[in-house]
Structure formats: structure tokens, C-alpha cells
Amino acid sequence: MTASPNFHIFNRLQDSAADERRKLVAGLRAERAHIEPKYFYDELGCALYAAICQLDEYYPTRTERAIFQAHRAAIAEAVGGAGAGGKVGGGTFIDLGAGDCRKALSWLPFIAPQRYLAVDIAAPSLAAALEKMAGDFPEVEMFGLATDFSASLTIEDALMVGRRVVFYPGSSIGNFSPPDAVRFLRDIRRIVGGSYGGSCGGGGGDSGGGDSGGSLLIGVDAKKDAAKLGAAYADSLGVTAAFNLNALRNVNRILGANFDCAEWRHAGFYNAALGRVEMHLEATRDLTVRIDGADRTFAKGERIHSESPYKYARAEFEALLREAGFAEIDCWTDAESAFWVFCAR
After folding, report:
1. What is the 8-class DSSP label of residue 87?
2. Fewer CB within 10 Å: C terminus or N terminus of the chain?
3. Residue 198: pLDDT above 60?
């Protein structure tokens, strides 16, 4: 545990390091090579992702932000925070994939939690982010949990107090296949606990009946024009390409491999049949890479699959929520229905 007078960080990453190394090696040596999106996020990868979020082509961040700004008070009231009605907040605000905690900054005054729990795989960034958060919100207890929740999400009860609100913005749920998304949503449902009920709202919604359980506030990217989706993941400045290629540098660091990024190129496109964008790293020539002490050959044009962000129609994601045990309470969107924000419990 890392502690300061203002915050506490619990590191769970060491617990699974050996297993994760084996899985990474197996994925790279597979006939259809693949790596998980979590390997994007070393220190450089986090900085590149922050830059992606500012790109003109990358609409999800600004669209989600606009939805939040347009409906902030109603959303806060729906999840059970202070909201427009001046309800008592309290409890724990759990920020999954918190990164630099920037998205949570604007929510804390509305949710008014007793405790903020930032959960992220990038341990080094948590301390700096929480130190700033503690300075901005001295009345809120600041906790960080460095963990990999790609396989399962488990948070010890001791890290949470009172009612729980789980915040999962940015359409990160799209990085799970639909069956895995249901499994992950079930993990969240167990964390928020309580009894469930309520009804779906339209643009501003009904927050449902008297439910004593916690809430999930989640952002989900909508299915849309293939050209717009493709541009969002293959921007003209090449920032997404650099982000994708940086995963190879991270693999080199973890495994002692010798990938040369100059021998690979970024490939990103929308697969309409599967409802997902696909990101790959493609070999630009025949080459051999040393991976964990053994050679792996790649033919020119052979790809390493690095990410598949799934996109959803509203009804499709509502079905996943119901399958996971949630009853959807509210749904907000933008004028073009390009992005969804769901509050579920």
C-alpha cells in the first residue's frame, strides 16, 4: 500500500504478474497473434490516449462530455448523488479506468461522495492524479486501486463505504466482447449490491422507484456510419497509430522482446458484420521477432490483433444490462444519437 496524508493506493498488480506474462506470450505466439488492449497503457500510452481524446476525428470523448454537461443534475439525481434536489450524497464513487481522474473531477460536486475510489491498471499515474484530487476535494476520502480488471472485477468491501456508484465512461465497455461485457456487468452489479427495480427513461427519464441499491453510470458508443467510425480509429495525424504501435514497445519492456515499430503499421477499420472497430498491427515485411527466448516469424501483411471496440444500438446494450441483472433507469443521448449514457441499477 502507498499512503500519503491525503490518499491511499493499494496495488494488486503484482498478484497476477506471472499469469499475465504467460498469457501475453501465448497470444503473441498464437496462429492468429493477439494482445489485449491493456498493453496500450504504459506512461507513454496514457499520454497518447489523452491526445487521442482531443482529436477532431475522435468524437466519443467530446460527445459524452456534452451529454454529461447537458444533463448533469438529472444524471446525478438518478444515480443518487446530491443532484438538483439537494439529496444527501455519501457512499463511494468508484471510477473504473480512472486514468488521470479528469472525468471524475466534474462529477464529485454533484455526486457528493464520502469516498472516491480510482481503479486503474496504470499504477504510476494514480498517485499524481489522486494527489491533485485530494487538493481539489479535501472533504472526500481519496483511495486508489491499481489492478487489472480485464478478466474479473473484484473490489474488497474494506475499500468501500456506504452506497456505491460505479462510473465507467468513455465506452470502455466496448473493449469486451458482448458475452464478456455481460460477465463484467455482473461483476459491477455485485459491487453496487442492493435491491433492483425501476424503469427506463427517455431523454431525461424517470429514475424509478425507491431502490436502496447502488448505481452504474456508463458511457456506450453507438453504431453509426462506417466512415465516421473508421476515421475515429485511424486519425489523419497518426496519433492512434502511435498509440497502437506503442503496445509493441510495452511488450518489449515486459518480455524482453525485440519488436521494431518501424517494421509494423497501424490498421484500423469498422467490421459492420460484427458491430466493432478492429485495430491491428500489420507486418510491413517478412520478419522474425524474439519473444520470451523463442523466435516467432511473421509474414508480410500478417497481423497482431490489438483491440476490437464494440458499438451498440440502444436496445442491444439495454439487453446486456438486463442479462447482467440490472433494470435500466435512465438513458441520455446527443442530438445525433451518436453516444449513449446509461444509468442502471
Report:
1. -
2. N
3. no
